[in-house]
Amino acid sequence: MSAARMLLVEDDAALGELLTYHFEREDFEVRHTADGEEALLMAREAAPDIVLLDWMIEGLSGIEVCRRLRRMPETANVPIIMLTARGEEEDRVRGLETGADDYVTKPFSPRELVARVGAVLRRVRPGLAGETLSYADVEMDTVGHKVRRGGEVLPLGPTEFRLLKHFLEHPGWVFSRERLLDAVWGHDADIEARTVDVHIRRLRKAINRDGRPDIIRTVRSAGYSLDSGA
């Protein structure tokens, strides 16, 4: 697998250094700048495979950098993840409407961010992301159709496999039963939302064997999320 090229735009020097360390450890080629104008120049010189972009950088705002990256032919289709301390839904929606593919709200764990970046790359650059999905101690071989937790192969039915695959592609996201029905069973499936609960129980039983921590979180009145609680 060739190294994915990342453009990191973050003006917090300590955070920029921390993220560079974590992503280089995962074999990313990281170019880091604190300046929005310089980020645009760097993107023109060598188009990245993914952009991590802080909302609150000095000078040219992150949202404006995102807008301009989407207008440039070199980066029109490059995935962009916004890093933001803003938790309000309106701000998140504004970022997505400007062209961001995903957002991560500070504070976040670097491990979660690495997983989110991997998930975005799998959706848009599958050749870069390889054939293994992973989160915490769970690994899925999407080609060999095998799931391991702590190295032990888990027996999953086809529906539980698709359900877990969807969660692994979107770690930390909360999905309602209706959205899971669409994603896993398909839009035309004539299935009740309660069916999701049954398969979630089966998935939990399979992956939480031998007293392992439950990484499927039930979010009251909202749905389910892949969340290790770390």
Question: How are the SSEs ordered, and which strands pair?
Answer:
Elements: E1 5-9, H1 13-25, E2 29-33, H2 36-45, E3 50-54, H3 62-71, E4 80-84, H4 89-98, E5 102-105, H5 110-124, H6 126-129, E6 132-135, E7 138-141, E8 146-149, E9 152-154, H7 158-169, E10 174-175, H8 177-185, H9 194-207, E11 216-219, E12 223-226
Q: How many domains, as an integer?
A: 2
CATH topology of the largest domain: Rossmann fold
Number of helices: 9
Estimated radius of gyration: 19 Å
The major pleated sheet works out as:
5 strands, parallel
What is the global morphology? globular
Strand order across the biggest sheet? 2-1-3-4-5
* Share of β-strand residues: 15-25%
Number of strands: 12
> Could you name the CATH class of the largest domain?
Alpha Beta
Order of helices and strands, N to C? Answer: EHEHEHEHEHHEEEEHEHHEE
Distance between the termini: 28 Å
List keywords for this structure.
single chain, 230 residues, alpha/beta, Rossmann fold, Arc Repressor Mutant, subunit A, 2 domains, 5-stranded parallel β-sheet, 4-stranded antiparallel β-sheet, 9 helices, 12 strands, globular
